[in-house]
Amino acid sequence: MDSILDGLITEQPNDKTSAIDQLGSAEIMALINDEDRLVAEVITGLIPQIAAAADRIVESFRSGGRLFYVGAGTSGRIGILDASECPPTYGTDPDMVQGLIAGGFQAVKDPVEGAEDSAELGASDLEAAGVTAGDVVIGIAASGRTPYVLGAMKRAGELGAAVFGICNNPETPMSQTGFPVIEAVVGPEVVMGSTRMKSGTAQKMILNMLTTTAMIRIGKVYRNLMVDLNPSNKKLVHRAKRIIALATEASDTEIEAAYRESEGQVKTAIVMLLAGVGAAEARRRLSASRGFVHGALISPNAL
């Protein structure tokens, strides 16, 4: 038996759910819900640490760098999920935010035996992704001790990248790496060791905060509207036009004309309508303002 693993908070029985196997569906769900409420409270106390990581991500993005998540199992899947949602939501290049998982993309669906136990594999996958000193790497592991993740974090540091960790236990090997580590200690799971539950929820909340904050701070949100979304299907085309309408209060005819002239670029269409300019001038203004709609709407002489 692994005495270190047995001592982890995420591997302890939860006294509050010890009779959960004798309950009906609604009672089970009430207990799960009670435990889930604790996650947001824990995250509140971690906001300064999460903000520090977000600030470093913003710095990297502004310099053309990228964000990499590295995890195994549930943690790896959560990283891939967050990365995969950035292009349609914020119009980012797919390389800008990437998720690496022990065992490769096969592991998104199926377990890959032994992959998470190799620090060398983590390091080699990190190298194969082309991580450089301009990038940010975030290792994610509920236990804080997954060799694949620690190996990747170590190699990222050697390559000069900014490195952070996210785990759900205190005083783990991850916290002893010398890198800043966000310890979202949410307590024992409803079902012992099922870290896809509270631990996974905490990880997803943190990643949502990191990328959403970073995207806002590099100009991909105007007011609270996602103005850089990629309208790649009918639903998103409808959303894009609705965003233009909410931002400009223009008529349907004006919105359709601006949408066509801007070639579906929501930011461009908004600046066209609010500043009364054509697509070329709107794009020039956006370029001069580093993509911020507010900046593109000020006097052209100030750009």
From TrEMBL:
Alphabetical list of PANTHER family matching this protein: GLUCOKINASE REGULATORY PROTEIN
Name assigned to this protein: N-acetylmuramic acid 6-phosphate etherase
Extra remark: A lyase-type mechanism (elimination/hydration) is suggested for the cleavage of the lactyl ether bond of MurNAc 6-phosphate, with the formation of an alpha,beta-unsaturated aldehyde intermediate with (E)-stereochemistry, followed by the syn addition of water to give product.
E.C. number(s) listed in UniProt: 4.2.1.126
Top-level taxonomic group: Bacteria
Family: Belongs to the GCKR-like family. MurNAc-6-P etherase subfamily.
Name of the coding gene: murQ
Catalysed transformations (reactions): N-acetyl-D-muramate 6-phosphate + H2O = N-acetyl-D-glucosamine 6-phosphate + (R)-lactate
Complex formation: Homodimer.
PROSITE patterns hit by this protein: GCKR (PS01272), SIS (PS51464)
Molecular function via GO: carbohydrate derivative binding; carbon-oxygen lyase activity; ether hydrolase activity
Catalytic residues identified in the record: E85, E116
Organism: Paenibacillus durus
UniProt keyword terms in alphabetical order: Carbohydrate metabolism, Lyase
